[in-house]
Amino acid sequence: MLWLGWELMFSTIGWGAGWLVVRIATVGRLPNVGIREEGNYDFLPRLAVELIGLLALSALVWWLAGALEA
Question: Would you state the pLDDT for residue 1?
Fold first, then answer.
């Protein structure tokens, strides 16, 4: 179960969101692999992209919760 949670949360959701955020922020320069090629990226840069993605999703949820509250 731990593997499945890690795979879904970090490797799929985190990478997809982080890939988009980093790609926009670096104007298409990084990450230099496709959105479905996270296995071809080194571990630490991949982890950074995944954490950026999760942070971006958390910020979006936090912002939407505040916007809906008002």
Answer: 76
Burial (Cβ within 10 Å: 0-12, 13-18, ≥19) of residue 12: middle
Per-residue pLDDT of the chain (70 residues; tens, 9 = 90+): 777 877 877 788 999 999 999 999 999 999 999 999 888 899 999 999 999 999 999 999 999 998 888 6
Q: Report d(CA 51, CA 54) in Å as an integer.
A: 5
Q: What is the 3-state secondary structure (H, E, C) of 4-69?
A: HHHHHHHHHHHHHHHHHHHHHHCCCCCCCCCCCCHHHCCHHHHHHHHHHHHHHHHHHHHHHHHHHH
Q: Scanning the structure block, which residue is given the tokens 């296995």? A: 39
